[in-house]
Every structure is written in structure tokens, then in C-alpha cells.
Write a structure and sequence with these properties.
Blueprint lengths: L33 H18 L2 E8 L6 H13 L10 E6 L3 E9 L4 H19 L1 H4 L3 E7 L16 H6 L2 H21 L1 H14 L5 E7 L5 E7 L8 H12 L21 H9 L6 H7 L3 E3 L6 H4 L8 H4 L4 E3 L1 H5 L6 H14 L2 H17 L5
Parallel strand pairs: 7-8
Antiparallel strand pairs: 1-3, 1-4, 2-3, 5-6
Length: 378
């Protein structure tokens, strides 16, 4: 990591090009180039995971200043005014070359809403004092936090601290995967419509309440969406039962009577028909609509509830920060609920490392057998 060096006298000679700002006048704080800064974000995030620390990433987006020379001059002014605001361990660099300047604030004991607002306020004042109110209003300031994004909400936050995931995205694979999702989900919804109607009638007749169960789940990059299933529980069931169970299971200490699996084995909240639907996974069929909408994919990790995600260790969170959630996946065809939570996450991360269209097809072909066997389904 670059350290703060002794200050030097400002030079009156401008840089050869307006975009060359790595050598700074007046503060001695070098500006990392985009690849180096991205690498630094990755390393500091991994360090935060390892030592259970927090870090903030401040981004100053100058794309609102259309003139490249004016934008470069504005960034020079900001950088020269920033020395007194930065610690020795902070890192300054280009998040996006010559358009978005980043400041990485690592090794924080906590990154709560109060700290985010304080940091946002300080850098907002810096921008206005350095550039003037008119020019500062044409720039966008955001503060990103790690590792507890869902616990920190607010207008000044946008939690995207995984730049290496973006760089590794294979656009061809994503296009093929989306094509597969559309090519399967739309025909399946049409062909299975008689079965949907039959199951809807059965659910309605088995107990009072709606046919579909709607629930907010977290998708790719922890974005919320409405998750659909056929209802398998009695209406008004206490959600705290599941929340307490999941908290214990994620922590590696399943509750008594759970048989050490991911789902509650003898849940009194589940209806008689619901047990059949769960064992055959027919309750999952409405998620084909989620796939058609783009909230989910056919293959991927299962989407967690918000309270599940909040209890994840940092390395657990990669299962949805790196991938769009799916109806089926390695976990479903290899272990389903009979695996431990950590084993489930490792299977999701294995899929993330090896993902390909061929692997998706292989998992899809194995899914009907897993459904019919009922192994690990409750």
C-alpha cells in the first residue's frame, strides 16, 4: 500500500497532458492508476474479510463535467485539497480513469450509518470548497461500505465493492445463459399451465389463504425482488420460527430435532399438501416467472431472505454478490438440504468458478432426478 510521503512544493508547470495526474503537486499523495486501484480495493476487501474489519470507498464522479480539460482541472483541484483529509493508510486512485476518482478508507472498526454520513459530509464540503457550489453540483459523490451493506441504507450509499466480479463477467456467457433462461422458462410456463391450474385449485382447497406465496428475497448484488412459490404453509404462520432456525444453522449449531439439515424437518406450519409439494419441489414452479422477468436464472444459488444475508460471514455473501440466484444448482442436485450451510455455500462458489453453458445444461438434466427422489427435500 502507498504511504503518505513528505509534502513537496507545488509546481507551476502543468503536466504534459491534462489526464496525467499520477504525480501530484502539493500533497505528495500518489494517485493509483485504475488497474492498481482496482487491485487495491480487492486486496483491502479480502483483508477486511480476514480480520473482520470495515472499509469505505468514496467515489467522486466527474462525468457531469463534459469538457475533459475542465474535468481534469477540477480533479487536480480536488486532489490538491485532499491531503489534510486523508490518513497515511488511505488510498487514492482512479476507479474509472479520468472520470471517477476513488478514495479507499480501510481498517475501520465499524462502518455504520453515522460514519457514512460523516464521511459523505466531509468530502461534500471538500468538493464545494475546492470547486465552488456550481461546479461541485455537476459531480456525483457516493460512499460505499463493506462488509455490511444491508445494514447501512441511505441516499449516499451504493454498495458495489466487487469490481473484480465485473471485470470477470463473460458477456457471451451471460447472453447465452439469458437465452437459455428465456428459451426454457417461456415454453415451460405455457406447457405447464394445466398443471399450474391443477395445483392452484389443490392449494386453494387444502387450506384458506392465497394460492401463491410472495416473499422479498435478495438477488444478484443483494437487490430485492418478489419471490414466488405455491403456498405450502397455513396463513399467519410465525416467521420467527424460521428466522431462529436459520440463525442457528448458519452459525453451525442446528436446533434440536433438525437432524442437522438446512430446512426444518417436521414443521407444524406446513399443510398436508404443502409437504407433498415441497418433497417433489412442485412448489418452486412459479419461479419460472421470476426467471422470465430476469430476477432469477434457471441455474444459480438459492436467493436468501434479508435476515439470512445479514447473518452471513463475508465469504458467504459472495454466493449472491457474484451470481444471479437460480431455481436449481449444484447444491440442489448434489446435496439439497442434507448438506451443512458452509458446504452449500462452497457448492455455490464452485459453480461460480466453473460456470459455463455446458455446466448449466448438465445441472438442468440432473434436476428432475433430484426432484423425483425427494432426497433432502422437506
Amino acid at each position: 500500500m502507498r504511504k503518505h510521503t513528505s509534502s513537496t512544493q507545488p509546481s507551476n508547470k502543468p503536466p504534459p497532458k491534462a489526464v496525467r495526474l499520477r504525480s501530484l503537486a502539493g500533497n505528495g499523495f500518489p494517485v493509483e492508476d485504475e488497474p492498481d486501484f482496482t487491485r487495491q480495493i480487492y486486496l483491502e476487501r479480502r483483508r477486511a474479510e480476514r480480520y473482520q474489519r470495515n472499509l469505505l470507498l468514496v467515489l467522486m464522479d466527474g462525468t457531469g463535467i463534459a469538457d475533459p480539460l475542465g474535468r481534469a482541472a477540477a480533479f487536480r483541484g480536488l486532489i490538491q485539497s485532499m491531503a489534510d483529509l486523508l490518513r497515511d493508510t488511505d488510498v487514492l486512485g482512479w476507479y474509472s480513469r479520468d472520470t471517477v476518482l476513488g478514495i479507499l478508507l480501510p481498517n475501520l472498526e465499524q462502518a455504520d450509518q453515522a460514519l457514512i454520513r460523516a464521511v459523505f459530509g466531509k468530502f461534500s464540503d471538500l468538493m464545494e470548497n475546492s470547486l465552488g457550489a456550481a461546479l461541485a453540483s455537476r459531480m456525483e459523490l457516493t460512499v460505499h461500505a463493506f462488509p455490511d451493506p444491508l445494514g447501512l441504507s441511505g441516499d449516499s450509499t451504493d454498495f458495489t465493492l466487487y469490481p473484480e466480479s465485473q471485470h470477470k463477467t463473460n458477456s457471451l456467457f451471460q447472453a447465452l445463459k439469458r437465452g437459455l433462461d428465456l428459451g426454457v422458462s417461456l415454453p415451460a410456463l405455457l406447457l405447464l399451465s394445466p398443471l399450474f391450474a391443477l395445483l392452484a385449485v389443490a392449494v386453494k382447497c387444502s387450506s384458506r389463504g392465497p394460492v401463491l406465496f410472495r416473499q422479498v428475497r435478495l438477488g444478484y448484488c443483494a437487490r430485492p425482488f418478489i419471490f414466488l412459490k405455491f403456498r405450502t404453509m397455513y396463513p399467519g404462520s410465525d416467521a420467527a420460527v424460521h428466522e431462529n432456525y436459520v440463525a442457528a444453522f448458519i452459525a453451525g449449531r442446528p436446533l434440536a430435532g433438525s437432524d442437522g439439515i438446512y430446512k426444518i424437518t417436521h414443521d407444524p406450519r406446513v399443510t398436508g399438501l404443502g409437504r407433498i409439494l415441497r418433497r417433489t419441489s412442485l412448489d418452486e414452479l412459479p419461479q419460472l416467472w421470476n426467471v422470465l422477468r430476469g430476477d432469477m436464472s434457471l441455474v444459480g444459488p438459492r436467493p436468501p431472505l434479508r435476515y439470512e444475508f445479514e447473518r452471513y460471514a463475508p465469504w458467504h455473501r459472495r454466493r449472491i454478490l457474484d451470481l444471479k440466484p437460480g431455481i436449481t444448482g449444484l447444491w440442489q442436485v448434489l446435496g439439497r438440504s442434507s448438506t451443512t450451510f458452509d458446504e452449500m455455500v462452497r457448492l455455490d462458489l464452485r459453480y461460480a468458478r466453473r460456470r459455463s453453458l455446458w455446466l448449466d445444461l448438465k445441472i438442468l438434466f440432473q434436476t428432475p432426478g433430484a426432484m423425483l427422489s425427494g432426497k433432502g427435500a422437506y
